[in-house]
Amino acid sequence: MIIQLADNLSVGEELPVFDKIKSLGYSVTDVRTNVRRYLVCTGSKPFDIRSIGNMPQVSDVHFVNDANQLVSREWKVGRSVIDLGDGITIGGNELSLMAGPCSIESEEQIETTVKFLLENNVRVMRGGVFKPRSSPYAFRGMGYDGLKMFYDICKKNGIRIVTEVMQADQIDQMLDYVDIFQVGARNAQNFTLLDALGKCGKPVLLKRGISGTIEEMLASAEYIFSGGNEKIILCERGIRTFERASRNTLDLNAVPILKKRSHLPVVVDPSHGIGIREHVADMALAGVMTGADGIIVEIHKTPEKAYSDGQQTLNFDEARKLFANLRQTYALKQSFNQ
Amino acid sequence: MIIQLADNLSVGEELPVFDKIKSLGYSVTDVRTNVRRYLVCTGSKPFDIRSIGNMPQVSDVHFVNDANQLVSREWKVGRSVIDLGDGITIGGNELSLMAGPCSIESEEQIETTVKFLLENNVRVMRGGVFKPRSSPYAFRGMGYDGLKMFYDICKKNGIRIVTEVMQADQIDQMLDYVDIFQVGARNAQNFTLLDALGKCGKPVLLKRGISGTIEEMLASAEYIFSGGNEKIILCERGIRTFERASRNTLDLNAVPILKKRSHLPVVVDPSHGIGIREHVADMALAGVMTGADGIIVEIHKTPEKAYSDGQQTLNFDEARKLFANLRQTYALKQSFNQ
Amino acid sequence: MIIQLADNLSVGEELPVFDKIKSLGYSVTDVRTNVRRYLVCTGSKPFDIRSIGNMPQVSDVHFVNDANQLVSREWKVGRSVIDLGDGITIGGNELSLMAGPCSIESEEQIETTVKFLLENNVRVMRGGVFKPRSSPYAFRGMGYDGLKMFYDICKKNGIRIVTEVMQADQIDQMLDYVDIFQVGARNAQNFTLLDALGKCGKPVLLKRGISGTIEEMLASAEYIFSGGNEKIILCERGIRTFERASRNTLDLNAVPILKKRSHLPVVVDPSHGIGIREHVADMALAGVMTGADGIIVEIHKTPEKAYSDGQQTLNFDEARKLFANLRQTYALKQSFNQ
Amino acid sequence: MIIQLADNLSVGEELPVFDKIKSLGYSVTDVRTNVRRYLVCTGSKPFDIRSIGNMPQVSDVHFVNDANQLVSREWKVGRSVIDLGDGITIGGNELSLMAGPCSIESEEQIETTVKFLLENNVRVMRGGVFKPRSSPYAFRGMGYDGLKMFYDICKKNGIRIVTEVMQADQIDQMLDYVDIFQVGARNAQNFTLLDALGKCGKPVLLKRGISGTIEEMLASAEYIFSGGNEKIILCERGIRTFERASRNTLDLNAVPILKKRSHLPVVVDPSHGIGIREHVADMALAGVMTGADGIIVEIHKTPEKAYSDGQQTLNFDEARKLFANLRQTYALKQSFNQ
């Protein structure tokens, strides 16, 4: 059960609601986001929901069957849209495109990419400055200096950035230089990190775990929301299966299922999802046809020279064609829904 | 290495080719299909391929790196198209639609479905008469009588049928009443069945194994081809993963990968691929966007009353809308390839 | 619900039992094995079981909660033991050892192996004459001639044989030359084959499917039993997982779980289960410690020269040491159960 | 290539070695542990290894083929033993037993468990104070206060403790109250945490990732070692598979494979590995038979009342019997190795 408290309650005015919940034998989690205050209640005893709904301190109340209540579509009218300012949004009735290199490598690389994105009307750039690498001897990214450079150049050009945070204690130092925090597949169940991102105030792009289920992904999103942050984007990026011909198995089934279960926007990462450059475009187009709100894709001026993920990265010509085709595909898909 | 022998060789005229292969230390499999005769050779010693290509008994010769040589795209100019007569084909530059119930249930059911398919210009009907069931106590299908009825009604109406064969010893009795033999996911590595289908002369729709890899699927297709049958359709139908929110995980990555590796047509089964009726259409559309040559989908006049698979079966209104959308999507996808 | 009919009923005498079942709204499957006649009933309406138990035609009746009733441990007093004659058994309170090459290769090979087995008091020899091979160009086994030779030599020496059957239509021709039919991992859900083995009268060693679950394995066993054959041995041989360091992942969890759920004997195949020769012995010993009734292991006089599976095959010295250690381990494990 | 520098080099004395490595085109990672200083070099150019081995600043040098060089068995003579003081070790020629509840719950619980462990000569107690929970609304452990109480009681009684750390920034505050840091399955690729544990000076018990491979586990161990910490214990605790009858699939194959590849000690967690109380003992015994150096098992005075994991927790009677049987099994296994 989710109780939305009325706005502008005085201190202590909410206490009778807590008393009422307690008297029903329900436990309660008090969630304050930048949007409003929710009481998430769990319990099993049936009762007349109006006895809460009619309290003056309560603006709305819903029974929610899903274990992950706040991210569930059951209680929310309409779908969540993440507003990044200047008319840039994720979710809603427009296709969101996010593109950029796997790793931030240099000022020149950022400038070139930004120029290309602007020409193609893509307003969100991806790029990693902290790279999770399974070998301790591999390149681990440009770190905070790279981040500031990345953010500053993009900001000057009206571009938002999405970049991976690997640990809760990085958030403070990164906060002023990030538009969207990305949680990587290996951190999808790093609950301390999820908790901390619940307090950070910035949007979070949450990737599915390497062999994570849809249910687990929603539970991870619930961590962020219950921590106090409603601005969450779910990202399907492929799961581990027995198939060795592709890097991962892009589970496009997850898109309609997630959109059915949750009000959060859903984007697809075809680059990691298949891991083979010449097939990335096909999978991106398919992602849009399943109903995705956006695509996040790896691009590089010269993929052959990229520090990482070159084998799954599009060059600018390939990306230009893909963006145009994605927009046509999105328009066709929208026409099917009418 | 694949050697295509010249047509119209007299008996014994090919022997020098065999001698030549033997002298090179290669082993050879002699494959005769309805199209031509191939010698599939395996060995590792390098030599000048022209020494075989120039023999008068040889029309063409290719080195093929793939282990599954005959189904590989390396040696074949153009892609394979399965011709079912009357202008009905699978592969090529037209979208193939196949639809019908999970199980054949009655004459009335077949008639109604055929009528619906004709109205929508769908020329291939699916339907099972032998059902593999994991419990020995469940409905196992209408058997041979159902098959004859199914085939006769469809034939009268210019519709081709695709139906599952479960065992090599069923082929003879089914042969006159089948247009396309389907190999189910559980039989994807039933090598005796695959061998026997290599001799049957009819097209074969080969489903991917329940947790089979792309490489294993191609090896199974190679069995059929090397048995003497070139008319093979590959079908992606979902694999088993940890995800429990869907019946299977439709691996759409497999479509572009299979089309890159093999000259055989590739179709997608979204019904088993996701197993949830309201999401089947999304996955079918996505399948076309990845480059599939066709879609095979479960439909029923009243899915709620279907003997099996009702939870993933579309009704006629849903199917009608889907067919139209699939055709639009296919046209858009074709435009991207130009 | 399983009803055991009384022995020696006259023809038609059982009809009142069928009428009674029908009147309760239950469906019934009539199962006749070499041991007795069972009526397997499925339905959900509660009733007083004594109303059936008290019928004179009924010797015993049990409610069984498991879907796979006949193989369930719920109704059976004691555990099943497979009697192969001459004091050779599988199950019960003795460790069963089965050993031999992957493929039968020659008379000399059989003779040598039999001699070795006799020296070590191992009474069941394994060996394949029909080999399922994923490539159509690989060695497929010695066939029926090899089988006869294999059987005859073993019979002369008091050794029983276990060998794989790949297709229902092979059973008749193999029947006189087989002591235990093996169903391979790829055929674990070949229901036509399982059905046919239900009628064959010979013991069946059923391997777990390549990515099959325990529940599916029990369902496959139920097929054999409900076809009329009680003589079933369950074999854990590893499942497919993401781990690439081993050929399969030997799921030893399955041993205690299967023994808890079913009255059938359970054996372990460490050779396929890990696929690495130097670790086969460790896994065999562990299998016994989990409670397995037997071990089936690949051995060869010179594994380096074996036609197949040499990388996971023990030589005679290794096997001799293993047999001794297995027996000590089994004795220790038995002592823990007292 | 691993270069062990000579002990007691003066500052700067090692520089010629770095120059030499650089001149060969190799990259180098400088690793200082409490034991010695290693230079881990990666490159591919062949050269005469004696040109480094003969340098006076070098005590030893080895080519290592494994990507994870420091944890590889290729360079190390003998196996690593973790010394916890007072004769308590992990690895070597003695079976290590670790036992305790899933969660630390109260002082009384700790006292009772410690008493039981002492009676059974078990010297390491497990217990969680920070619990990773997939739902944000579940019990998350007693935290730092619980940790101090846990540590103090155990220290007084000569017991060492192993407890999970979930985040790098917890290490400092936990450090004085932990004997062995445990890295949980969900954190197996939390590289920031692994890096930080490389500097902490305390032993680390590293659990295998939820669907992690053996290679990934060794890479995670390499992170810790290359960070400066040689005291690592590898723990097999089951992986995610399709099997639903058990909580996880205990991959005992991993034990001999890990011991072949790495010099680190390997322990088995049968509690999470099967997740079913009545089968935990069987799997523990099997673990010892595969060659494990130790067993870590969940026990509780009254498992039915445990805050978490009660379904897989042994009571004291069960645990007492298991410890005795494990010791007998270990002795038998040791006798096989002679």
Secondary-structure blueprint:
4 copies of one chain form a homotetramer.
Chain A: E1 2-5, H1 15-23, E2 27-32, E3 37-42, H2 50-53, E4 58-62, E5 82-83, E6 89-90, E7 96-100, H3 107-119, E8 124-126, H4 143-156, E9 160-164, H5 171-174, E10 180-183, H6 191-197, E11 204-207, H7 214-227, E12 232-236, H8 254-261, E13 266-268, H9 270-274, H10 277-289, E14 294-298, H11 316-336
Helix pairs in contact in A: 3-4, 6-7, 10-11
Topology pattern of chain A, helix = H, strand = E: EHEEHEEEEHEHEHEHEHEHEHHEH
**CATH H-level superfamily of the largest domain in chain A:** Aldolase class I
Strand order, sheet with most strands of chain A: 7-8-9-10-11-12-13-14
Kindly provide the name of the CATH class of the largest domain in chain A.
Alpha Beta
Secondary structure tally: strands of chain A: 14
